[in-house]
Amino acid sequence: MSSISGVGGGHRPPPPKPPSFDTLDSDASGALSLDEFKAGAPKGTDSVKASARSEELFKAIDSDSDGSVTKEESDAFKAKAEKAQQTLQSFLFGLQSEGTSQTEKASDSSDSEDAFAQLDANSDGSIAKDEFLSALSSGTQSSSDMLSKLFEAIDSDKDGSVSKEEQSAFQQTLEKRGRPPGPPPGLPPSSASQAYDSTYQLGASNASGTAYSQAA
């Protein structure tokens, strides 16, 4: 997917490298408390939102819910989040048909087929909601909520699963609106486009969350 460069041709500096697990583990206990974890949050953000985001992320990483995050839990979450992010980007890219030539259209179709197959874990020809969320969610409630909205927008017959025909129909809906490679400015989007745009932005949010989790 394309990215937007800085205004005026300038280049945005790379984000600072997050602190290591050992740096955050101030008491050298081998596990991070919530307060230690919050110390690794990106600076310069809204304090209330940053705190809420930290708590949600901490809860998602703390797989055994014991109130602390170990290095093993951090590494497992990072691996899952990175895989989910890659699959999500592949799926969203498959919903776009930017090309007009036959070769480009064939490539788009192949991308859609590959993305569908990745999500159809039991190979029954449809994607159940739990398959969809399991493959694409980073593990936080906010990402699951946003992905649920996209799933419901694609699941036109509301039977709890997405068929290839429904995915194609959703893709055609986006095409009719002149789907750009990123969230469109201006007019309020339709429910389908709104669900897509929200989830498109989730990809960027997941990337940020994955980088933050490296601090754990």
Detailed description of the structure:
Helix content is 57%, strand content 5%. α4 (71-94) runs antiparallel to α9. The protein has helices spanning 21-24, 34-38, 47-61, 71-94, 102-119, 129-136, 141-154, 164-176, 191-213; strands spanning 31-32, 69-70, 126-128, 161-163. It is built from nine helices and four strands, in the order αβααβααβααβαα. The strands form two sheets. The chain has a two-stranded antiparallel sheet with strand order 1-2. The chain has a two-stranded antiparallel sheet with strand order 3-4. By secondary structure, the protein is mainly α. Mean pLDDT is 75; it is low at 1-9, 98-106 and 180-190. It has one domain (20-213).
Individual helix count: 9
| Helix fraction by DSSP (H/I, runs of at least 4) | 55-70%
Rg for CA atoms: 19 Å
Q: Give the low-pLDDT segments.
A: 1-9, 98-106, 180-190
The overall average pLDDT, rounded, is: 75
- How far is the first residue's CA from the last residue's CA? 28 Å
Strand content: under 5%
The number of strands is 4
